[in-house]
Structures are given as structure tokens and as C-alpha cells.
Amino acid sequence: MNRLLQFAHFIDLCNRQIGRASVWLILGAVLLSALAATLRYLFDWGSNAMIEAQWFLFGLVFLLCAPWTLQEQGHVRVDIIYTRLSTRWRAIVDIVGGLLFLLPVCILISVNAWDYFLLSFQQNESSMNPGGLLWWPMKLAIPIAFSLLAAQGVAEIIKAVAVLRNQSASKHGD
């Protein structure tokens, strides 16, 4: 179990670092938005690429911070019930939810999104807007992000099993 916990902590570390680095993309999106608005109102000049880059940056933040959010117990759940459960039952809910819902959905999306990316890459898909961006790089982020989310799901399941086996301090604070 110790090796599995070390593996889970490695996944935690990777996703935490990716999440923390991705947060800086918000600043990039804000600065890009301010620049686009300034150029549009002061110089009557706009750029589809700048607008699309803002969308892409926001999408990357959402995708790449999802595993970190899961690690920090920040995803929406029915907290009114979950928080009233004992540590043991919360661990059971986390294991069942991870195995029945999180992992299958992440794997399904990762596999299908990979095909979606490959088609886009092969066609060198780009925006239909004049001066728009290539779309395949953003489409590559989808299977990567859902693979990271699946890995974090595995880490959460490992930690929940450790809680059930009394081999780890509770991550739920009980």
C-alpha cells in the first residue's frame, strides 16, 4: 500500500504543479482581453486570433485545473449528505463514485477526444474566422486534461482505500 500511496502522492504533485502553473493563464487571458478592448476602442482595430486566444486560455484553465480541483475536494457534490457521513463512508462514496462514474467518463472522453484531435490535426483544422487560430492544439488539450483527471481519480481512490485500511490520515478531516 505504501508504494500505491507514493504513486498517488506523485500524481497529486504533478497535478498540483500543472494546476498552479495553469492559473497564470488567467492573467494572460485578462491581459489579452484588455489589449483587445483597448485596440478595438482606441484604434478601431480587432483581431479574431486575439479573441480566440482568450477562449483557448480560458478553456485551458478549466481543463488543466480540473484534476487539481478534484485533489482539493473542490468539485460539486451533494455536500449536505456527504459532509454528514463518517470518514469511512466518505471514503466508500469516493471509491464507488471514482470507479463507477469518474474513471469511465474520463476514459471515454480521453479516447474519443484523441480521435477528435487526430482528425483535426490531419486536416490542419483552423478557425473559419479570418485570421483565426489553429484548433488542433486546443483539441489536443482535451484528451491530455481528461487523462490527468483520470490519473487524479486513481490517486483519490488509492487514498480512500488507505483511509479504509487505516493506513493514512483522513483527507476528510474527521
TrEMBL record:
Its main location: membrane. It comes from the Bacteria. It holds the Pfam family DctQ. The chain crosses the membrane at residues 21-43, 49-70, 91-114, 134-155. Keywords: Cell inner membrane, Cell membrane, Membrane, Transmembrane, Transmembrane helix, Transport. InterPro entries: DctQ, TRAP_DctQ. It is found in: Cell inner membrane. It is a multi-pass membrane protein. One of its GO terms (molecular function) is transmembrane transporter activity. GO terms for cellular component: plasma membrane. Residues 33-161 form the Tripartite ATP-independent periplasmic transporters DctQ component domain. Belongs to the TRAP transporter small permease family. The complex comprises the extracytoplasmic solute receptor protein and the two transmembrane proteins. Part of the tripartite ATP-independent periplasmic (TRAP) transport system. This is TRAP transporter small permease protein.
